Amino acid sequence: MSLKDQLNPDRIPTHVAVIMDGNGRWAKKRGFLRAIGHENGVGALRKTATTAAELGVKYLTVYAFSSENWNRPKSEVNALMSLLVGSLKKELKTLTDNKIRLNAIGNLESLPPKCQKELVEVIAKTKDNDHMTLTLALSYGSKEEIVEAVKGIATKVSTGKLKVQDINDDTVSQHLFTSDMPDPDLLIRTSGELRISNFMLWQIAYSELVFTDSLWPDFNEEDFYKAVLDYQGRERRFGKISEQINS
Ligand code: FPP
Prior knowledge:
This protein is of the alpha/beta class. It has 9 helices and 6 strands; from the N terminus they run H-E-H-H-E-H-E-H-E-H-H-E-E-H-H. The site of farnesyl diphosphate has 18 residues, from helix 2, helix 3 and helix 4.
């Protein structure tokens, strides 16, 4: 039986988050510039988004550029920003054909104006697509996101709009970039690295984690099915015991 046929259609994760890692190593192995690795990463993202949408995943959130990635050589940062603009233009049809809504989270004001403009346009053009939401995390850092949330909450307290005793988990969630989506059920990281790297630290509190050795440009449908199968084989207890979950 194929991997796809082994999937339980009633237990498809609602939200899948992906740390797309290994573009640089993929390129190095072939004697290419790192930018070529990123270009091939776009293909893997297209494949993953269409596969996820086809399976019925409702939210796919991918780490495309971290706050720390600004520290990479200028040439690589520029290549990534040009790739982002070019890909947004080229992939509008893929998004429309698959009824995928584009969304972006992160410190978006720090992106070059061209990227911001293209993002705003594609987000507006895909806003009514209701099959799946693809969120690009761009200039994103989870600690920064939490700090901003704390500042927002503190401001509401200091201006009398919120009482300290009313602050709870939901208050924090509602002040994050991801306030309009459920937390990820499954987080996938490629390239064999076993780290979270400042990605959605609050939101992945109860996510199932799947690490795969594939370098991101090589990540394909079969790898995605494998990750979902792995997820479906886990028992999510959310701190309870097995008998409580199964009763
Ligand atoms: C990590 O690989 C990947 C990135 C920092 C960029 C991810 C970007 C893409 C997949 C391009 C597609 C996305 C858009 C939105 C254009 P790495 O460079 O850290 O790899 P390494 O660890 O092997 O060096």
